[in-house]
């Protein structure tokens, strides 16, 4: 059940949020309409709009990226690149990767792109940028965010090679230094 469904004030809102969460994960943003969600929740489409105002707002609320993506940015900067990759690829974060993938596939919609950018800024970029040195610290923090998003997008293609502990360790060793270079650039 999504966070929006758990926090819903009424059974109708809960039903809408649950069905929207299911359909967005199954069909993606573009493949899901307000009518589809309303039909699955057994309500009129106007009820969906009354409670959630727009498809983009409903999507952002039910996907609940904030609840899934909580990287630890403390600790030594010198090892942060590998730690971020380890975090992202950990087996217990499979749901986070699925949620991230659903969001990334919907970024061609302006409202979703803005929501994802705001979430990444709030959840990682601002804190990381404050820890980095140099005039380009915020730019590098955004690039770290982009590298992590790229890894999630590539995960579908490389998961079969990296699904074992040894495979994940190898991927962390390969990808971590690229991210580390943005965190602590060399001369």
Count of helix runs: 11
Q: What's the gyration radius in Å?
A: 18 Å
Mass-distribution shape: elongated
The share of residues in extended strands comes to: under 5%
Biggest sheet: strands, sense, closure? none
**Which residues form runs of ≥5 with pLDDT under 50?**
none
Percent of residues in helical segments?
over 70%
How far the N terminus sits from the C terminus, by CA atoms, comes to 48 Å
SSE order, one letter for each helix or strand: HHHHHHHHHHH
- How many structural units, i.e. domains? 2
Structural class: mainly alpha
Residue-averaged pLDDT, rounded? 86
* DSSP strand tally: 0
Could you walk me through the main structural features you see in this protein, from its secondary elements to its overall organization?
Keywords: DNA-binding, Transcription, Transcription regulation. Residues 33-52 bind DNA. Residues 10-70 form the HTH tetR-type domain. This is TetR family transcriptional regulator. With 187 residues, this protein is an all-alpha fold. The protein is 75% helix and 0% strand. It has helices spanning 3-7, 11-27, 34-41, 45-52, 55-63, 65-68, 80-89, 94-105, 110-131, 137-162, 165-183. The longest helix is centred in the last third of the chain and has 26 residues, at 137-162. The protein is elongated and about 60 Å long. The protein starts with a helix and ends with a helix. The relative contact order is 0.12.
């Amino acid at each position: 059940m999504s966070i929006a469904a758990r926090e819903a004030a009424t059974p109708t809102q809960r039903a809408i949020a649950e069905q929207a969460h299911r359909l967005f994960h199954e069909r993606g943003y573009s493949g899901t309409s307000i009518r589809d969600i309303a039909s699955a929740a057994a309500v009129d489409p106007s009820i969906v709009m009354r409670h959630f105002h727009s498809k983009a707002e409903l999507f952002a609320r039910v996907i609940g990226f904030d609840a899934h993506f909580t990287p630890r940015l403390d600790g030594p900067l010198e090892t942060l690149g590998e730690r971020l990759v380890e975090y992202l690829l950990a087996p217990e974060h499979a749901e986070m990767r699925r949620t991230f993938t659903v969001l990334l596939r919907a970024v061609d919609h302006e409202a979703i792109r803005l929501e994802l950018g705001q979430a990444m800024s709030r959840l990682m970029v601002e804190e990381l940028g404050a820890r980095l040195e140099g005039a380009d610290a915020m730019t590098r923090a955004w690039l770290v965010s982009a590298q992590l998003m790229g890894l999630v997008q590539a995960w579908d293609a490389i998961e079969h090679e990296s699904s074992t502990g040894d495979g994940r360790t190898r991927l962390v060793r390969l990808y971590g230094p690229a991210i580390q270079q943005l965190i602590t650039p060399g001369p």
